[in-house]
Amino acid sequence: MRWVVGAALAVLLALPAVLSSYAMTIFILIFFYAFLGQAWNIVGGYAGQLSVGHAAFVGVGGYTAAMLSIEGGLTPWVGMFVGAVLAALLGAIIGYLGFRFGLRGFYFVLLTVAFAEICRIAVSNIDALGGPLGLYITFTGDPRQFQFSDGRVYYYVALALMLVATATAWAIERRRFGMYLAAIREDEAAAEALGVDAFKYKMLAMIVSSFLTGLGGTFYAFYLFSLQPNTLFGIPLSVEIAIRPIVGGAGTLLGPIVGSFILTPLAELSRLYLGQGGLHGAHLIAYGVLLIGVVLFLPEGAYPRLRRALQRSRGAPFSGNERSHAAPVSAHPQSEPADERSHAAPVSGHPQSEPASRPPLQLTLLVARGLSRRFGGLQAVAGLDLTVQHGEMLGLIGPNGAGKTTVFNLLSGFLTPDAGDVSFRDRSIVGLPPHAICRLGLARTFQIVRPFPRMTVLENVRVGALARHPQAVAARARARDVVERVGLGARERVTAGALTLAERKRLELARALATEPSLLLLDEVMAGLNPTEIETIIELIRGIHESGVSILLIEHNMRAVMALSHRIVVLSFGEKIAEGAPADIANHPKVVEAYLGDEYVRAAPA
Amino acid sequence: MDVTLVLQGLLSGLLFGGVYSLMAVGLTLIFGVMRVVNFAHGDMMVWGMYLAYLLATRAGIDPYLSFVVCAAALFALGLLVQRGLVDRIIDAPHEMQILLMLGVALVLENLALVAFGPEPTRVRTPLGAATLWIGPVFVDVARLVTFVVAVALTVALSLFLYRTDLGRTIRAAADNTYGALVIGTDVRRVYAAAFGVGAACVGAAGALVSPILPFQPSTGLSLSVTSFNIVIIGGMGSLLGAFIGGLLVSVAESLGAVFLKPSLKELVSFSLLILILLFRPAGLFAKRTS
């Protein structure tokens, strides 16, 4: 891979020597759009927050640098960074509004469109910025003014921009930041449950993306020598920016570059040949047809397809995500000695980070008092008191609709209670977001499993491990331990979407476990499994518990819950109707009534 | 501020709003049924305009009659786009759907550019010059007719959706596609019908607005964006929301042109959109869901 990159780079560096000036122009545009696509990809691809308003950042960056140069005499070499900072500020505002208010999908698209359009209309109406006609930059050919008589300089500047953006994306991809963005794109709620501060990382992605795009604005302005609000802030430019990474492969490192190499020459050549014949717009028809074709026949983008084809021809054994190729850990000896690990076999047994292994200062781990939550006319949970002791395995049972999962959502921060308090390790956690609660050591699984479907098993678990091990390498080693522990070692490179239900349940467990909780909330991890699979998972839960993790378990499988729990709490219509040892619960009249109806109780001999 | 001027703005905004409503009703119908946002909506509307233009200049048919033909033609186009393209990506991620519809929009817009050129045009009708005075304000007769027909069509569409079997089936599929499949609905036929009817709405709207709004191929994009604004403001998937939202946005833009200046009128609707997105993202007339 290094050879290919090096060779490609050498060719690109040497190319200006042989290119005609027209071909050079095309290459400059390829690099420039690849650069913009790379910047867009950080928020639109990796984080999955589709923006069709990136032109606004080009516009803000370009206008800032141009105005500073024309009015203030400031060199664009400095002005471009001022413009980029202002673009990042605008990005932060859009991001804050969109992410704080939870806008997703089409709604987020429209927010970005609306901001870009507002900028366009505003700039068109500000006379100091040239109004609808825009600004013109007089050509001096002075390099200090970002102007070059020699087209080759533009070529190298554009190439440098593309490489800088690609290096930025590469650095992000390899780090926790990149893993977290991918997790957010795949399933934001599941990411939150694993300790990912989704808002923070989406904001960061937006700021980095808009900063880079803003830099591009200066290049645009000083390459074309004119800035018009309709072109610099317009929706068509936003579409041009987003299309290339999507066609090439959104959320992949080389996608934006591949996309630009496909689309930019196509656009330019068809503009030249079809536009010359008086057929204005004909090239855009071709463009539209190509877009439709890509969506129908290459939906994941060109680059992933290309990569697979290359791997096949080289006979590469697995088609894993390229992130997992980056540093094959199995070949690295850096993971801790195996004997030490097997000693501490219980998964959460890492002494330096495992709170449960410290002598417990308090006996109660979790206390909920008067917990209540209403949905419209339904009182889902009513004044529930619940305690979990250190080292306890507590079962939470009740008929369907009793409010068990709502209790989990209240404890883990996915819902806020209408009334009542929850304290975890002597600290109130009401109102804390899920990721903060996870970091305090309270992890959960979801009843309907929520794997990150396009990430591998190992990557899924790594997202959890990153909560305690910010370094990618350490997190990977940790994730591998956990994956082995739940028996998915042989499947670690499989994408989660391809797992069986039983495997997904174990993956769900592994991810939560990788966050090294002191209390684990398990929501029906046995539902839908066959008896053999249930046996395995019971053993697994026992092992986890023995390693020092307290467990709160929702389960419908009575035999399992009776066998596992020290104590059981029974919920019916949101209220606690019984609490006690498994044997007492099994014969408790109120419990029997809740499950079978009072007629059964009256009919049955007590 | 001149009261007459404000009244005038209010009235012409309201009258123009009928077309916005019809256009937004078409978009919200397509979205409600398929959860697909038709990014080519405005470009389809522009084709309705050019068709009315052709029928007026070549065959001498007034747009206030030819809107029926335009609606039928756009129905066919909608059907074609749905069957040929949208149907294949109905389960794809939304960015793929957006991209596909952007592709369709590009093709439609630039076909119009190749066929008709970039110059703005408008369709002449004998009604165009007529005005009525109501006290201090005047009513543009063309606007009035456009408004009346557009509102009548919206009402007819609601009757179709609420009173006919196919209409009820469409609403059922919009509420719960899976449920509709379970009870034996031919969902593909429903999708095709919904897309066709949604496109027919802009076919008619385009023809009706062609005498009062100068247009060119690039008009499509801004019409699309305006339709998105309206359906978000009214509530995605809500017919009533689209109808009232259309009037609201039109009046807001018209008043914006009076109070600020004409080139700033869109600023008003975009600001409105952002406020709605932030504080009432489900829209003003969101359907209550459990």
Task: Describe the 3D structure.
The complex is a heterodimer of chains A (about 600) and B (about 290). By secondary structure, chain A is an alpha/beta fold. Chain A folds into two domains: about 20-235, no CATH class; about 360-605, P-loop containing nucleotide triphosphate hydrolases (Rossmann fold, 3-Layer(aba) Sandwich), CATH 3.40.50.300. Helix content of chain A is about 55%, strand content about 10%. Chain A contains 26 helices and eleven strands. In chain A, the strands form three sheets. Chain A has a six-stranded mixed beta sheet with strand order 7-8-9-5-10-11, sandwiched between helices. In chain A, strands 4-3-6 form a three-stranded antiparallel beta sheet, covered by helices on one side. A two-stranded antiparallel ribbon of chain A has the order 1-2. In chain A, helix 3 runs antiparallel to helix 4, helix 6 packs antiparallel against helix 9 and helix 19 (about 455-465) runs parallel beside helix 21 (about 500-515). Chain A is elongated and about 95 Å long. The model of chain A is unreliable at about 315-360 (pLDDT under 50). Chain B is mostly helical. Chain B has one domain. Chain B contains eleven helices and two strands, in the order ααααββααααααα. Chain B has helices spanning about 5-35, 40-60, 65-85, 95-115, 140-165, 165-175, 175-180, 185-210, 220-235, 240-260, 265-280, and strands spanning about 130-135, 135-140. A two-stranded antiparallel ribbon of chain B has the order 1-2. The longest helix of chain B has about 30 residues, at about 5-35. The mean pLDDT of chain B is about 90. The interface between A and B is large, with 45 and 45 residues.
